[in-house]
């Protein structure tokens, strides 16, 4: 009988800590496999007979006991300028990434989320197309390695990356954020090297984070000093942000749940913008953070734990 829960995560993931605490309170058995600790175990996958065995000091874990898999921390091999990734590290990351995707052979277990769905949902253009097709309002968007702002009707625009970017230079790390921009910021020469997402700037906006877990929705507005934020709220330190519960219109709630399901996800973190009583879809993150939103009224950790305990199998 399948009993246990397998969690694929990281030693640094606070959200996983919250869920494992809930699982322990419920008396559930689980095994947390952190990507930083792969080398500490003997991990054997038999894709033909669909078995997985993890052996380590004083522990043994096998697939005969798995009922759910939480694919919390996918591995991506991203280039980080300023830090040379040696051949051994490149090989290790690429093969572990493929290994985790290979766990899809366990298609009789409940997944949060199914790896194939997670990777498809990472595509920002696909997100926008699906959102528009399903009935969300979506900002006008052009992806272009040229002067893309000329191709959108709005005179005001923002720019953003097509993918999550982490750049390293010596000991410094750099992230990219959504930024307001002006035509004078660009020339044909500076934009040719890589595509940029040019998007209509929505004025007088209210940022909303919608966390979807199965059929359950947690929605909060994000403000600073009780005021809406004109730029990217992620640039503001968390101590200066407020997260207040917000009641969404029933049709928007239904859209968020249906959209997440359509992507094949049982979990998703959706960013919306409200402007003049109109809701715009911005993006979804299939592995988005939520730990900082948890409180006694927003028990996201408990909802995820219950899905892992009682969630239906994929097939």
Would you give an account of this structure?
This protein has 315 residues and is α+β, with helices and mostly antiparallel strands. Among the domains are: 4-110, Rossmann fold, CATH 3.40.50; 140-201, no CATH class. Helices cover 23% and strands 30% of the residues. It contains seven helices and 18 strands. The protein has helices at residues 14-25, 87-102, 115-121, 124-134, 188-191, 250-262, 300-310, and strands at 4-9, 30-34, 42-46, 51-56, 59-62, 66-71, 110-112, 141-144, 157-160, 166-169, 172-175, 179-181, 196-200, 206-213, 216-223, 242-245, 267-275, 278-285. The strands form five sheets. A five-stranded antiparallel β-sheet has the order 16-15-14-17-18. Strands 2-1-6-7 form a four-stranded parallel β-sheet, covered by helices on one side. A four-stranded antiparallel β-sheet has the order 8-13-9-12, with no helix packed on it. Strand 14 and strand 15 form a beta hairpin. Helix 1 (14-25) packs across helix 7. It is globular. The two termini are 17 Å apart. One of its GO terms (molecular function) is ribosomal S6-glutamic acid ligase activity. InterPro entries: ATP-grasp_RimK-type, MvdD-like_ATPgrasp. One of its GO terms (biological process) is SOS response.
Profile the largest sheet: 5 strands, antiparallel
How many helical elements? 7
The percent range for helix content is 10-25%
State the end-to-end CA separation: 17 Å
State the shape. globular
Text of the CATH class of the domain at 4-110: Alpha Beta
In what order do the strands lie side by side in the largest sheet? 16-15-14-17-18
Topology as a string of helices (H) and strands (E): EHEEEEEHEHHEEEEEHEEEEHEEH
The CATH architecture term of the domain at 4-110 is 3-Layer(aba) Sandwich
Low-confidence stretches: 77-82
Number of strands: 18
**Structural class estimated from helices and strands:** alpha+beta
Question: What is the rounded Rg?
Answer: 21 Å
Beta fraction of the residues?
A: 25-35%
Q: Which whole number gives the mean pLDDT? A: 86
CATH domain fold name of the domain at 4-110: Rossmann fold
GO molecular function: ribosomal S6-glutamic acid ligase activity
Organism: Lonsdalea populi
GO biological process, one term: SOS response
Protein name: RimK-like protein
């Amino acid at each position: 009988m399948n009993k246990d829960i397998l969690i694929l995560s990281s030693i640094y993931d606070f959200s996983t800590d919250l869920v494992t605490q809930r699982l322990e309170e419920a008396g559930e058995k689980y095994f947390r496999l952190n990507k930083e600790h792969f080398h500490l175990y003997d991990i054997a996958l038999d894709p033909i007979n669909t078995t997985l065995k993890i052996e380590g000091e004083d522990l043994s874990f096998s697939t005969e006991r798995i009922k759910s898999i939480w694919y919390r921390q996918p591995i991506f091999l991203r280039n980080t300028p300023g830090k040379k990734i040696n051949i051994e590290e490149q090989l290790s990351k690429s093969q572990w990434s493929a290994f985790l995707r290979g766990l899809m052979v366990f298609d009789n277990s409940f997944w949060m989320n199914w790896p194939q769905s997670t990777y498809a949902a990472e595509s920002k253009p696909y997100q926008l197309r699906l959102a528009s097709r399903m009935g969300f309002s979506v900002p006008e968007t052009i992806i272009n390695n040229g002067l893309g702002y000329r191709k959108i009707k709005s005179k005001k625009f923002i720019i953003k990356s097509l993918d999550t970017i982490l750049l390293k230079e010596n000991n410094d790390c750099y992230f990219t954020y959504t930024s307001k921009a002006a035509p004078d910021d660009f020339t044909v020469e500076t934009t040719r090297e890589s595509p940029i997402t040019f998007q209509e700037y929505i004025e007088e906006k209210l940022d909303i984070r919608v966390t979807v877990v199965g059929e359950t929705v947690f929605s909060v507005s994000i403000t600073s000093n009780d005021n809406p934020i004109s730029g990217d709220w992620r640039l503001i330190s968390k101590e200066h942000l407020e997260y207040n519960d917000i009641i969404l219109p029933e049709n928007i709630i239904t859209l968020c749940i249906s959209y997440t399901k359509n992507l094949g996800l049982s979990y998703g973190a959706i960013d919306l913008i409200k402007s003049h009583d109109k809701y715009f879809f911005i993006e979804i993150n299939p592995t988005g953070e939520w730990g900082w939103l948890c409180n006694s009224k927003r028990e996201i950790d408990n909802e995820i734990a219950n899905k892992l305990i009682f969630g239906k199998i994929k097939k």
